[in-house]
């Protein structure tokens, strides 16, 4: 039965009308995956040499065991964003005269066939053969590698349950934030060393099979947790409510003051909350608000006569990340209902202006959320204010202008990771004005006078853009109107 269901899913994919269109993309993704896995293998082969360089004279096995917990914390994070859920085909299978348990078992088993599940083995296997086997023998190396592999596979089953249960809730975001704090934050702030707390488990795995057995039991428990949850929730009505998110129908009251454009901005906000890909971008915006912690307190970026030029880019990134990510696919978000706006009087103008309002509103929230960075110095607040003004006054128009170059359709219900629907050459060109635009204004004044005059020039440029907002936004509105039929035709193409 398992092979029959697997064969049906394979035939469904091959016979799909979009198979040929996505074949090249899938081939490129496979090549990219193989390249990344080759990097993992290379890192595993060089791990012994790296440890000899950076930790000469230390016990490399004990040192690696103390850092394994950080590898698993990182694995938890990248599995959260990359690992796909196996329930996409449930709706097409539940009507068959087959027990739900068999269907779920097939989907879970198929999900286990993933490159993510061999990363841990590829990373530590060369080191175990080079170092661990020499000191503890082949049995010790085998038990050590098995413990690490079982821990990684436990995360696989746990993540399938966790994402399905908490992906769209504040609990999920809280857990991810807690993982970040417990991982990097605890050691950086000197609270406690999480690696030393878990190190004895992997040390004991070198000489005893007990950790292997314990991890195997933990993996089975995580599988059963995942299996029972999927079986108990595999109903059509549950699938139809899968995208039901709290506050999904909540509007931003401020937008209602701007007429039809404000109503469409509120509608756009509701669509962001309802759809998976846009929710991912919104969630990433919250994570990137922590971007400044990498730079602002780093001695490598501090100078005696002012502040580092890189802080300008960080400020642009923090205060404008949503505008940059979401705005690069400006009209692609509305590819499925673009004709609705096309057939309404003033619909296109209101749609574009509503998106402007949304970008400005979320950027303002990002700026306010970044105010606590003043803890590192008042000049960081000035940097964020200057870059925020530049973002909403100038950069937003440039991003939208480039995003309107041959926009492509996309499916909103698909995830954001490794999903290139709607992405074209214009999305890559957007990086250029984001990187260079602020510096074209800031650097001349900073070199001629000082850093604060450079910030003032950046702020004045942004304010002038805000004052001329109506005329600048009209350029992009006219561009959409002049190409509206060509855009509509491209959106009607089947994904």
Describe the structure.
- The chain folds into two domains: 23-240, no CATH class; 253-491, no CATH class.
- It contains 21 helices and no strands.
- The longest helix has 48 residues, at 119-166.
- By secondary structure, the protein is mostly helical.
- Helix 16 (378-403) crosses helix 18 and helix 18 (431-448) packs across helix 19 (451-467).
- It has helices at 2-15, 19-54, 60-82, 100-112, 119-166, 170-189, 194-204, 210-232, 236-240, 259-274, 276-288, 292-295, 310-327, 338-342, 347-369, 378-403, 425-429, 431-448, 451-467, 469-482, 484-491.
Key words describing this protein structure:
membrane, 2 domains, single chain, transmembrane helix, globular, 0% strand, 495 residues, mainly alpha, 73% helix, ABC transporter permease
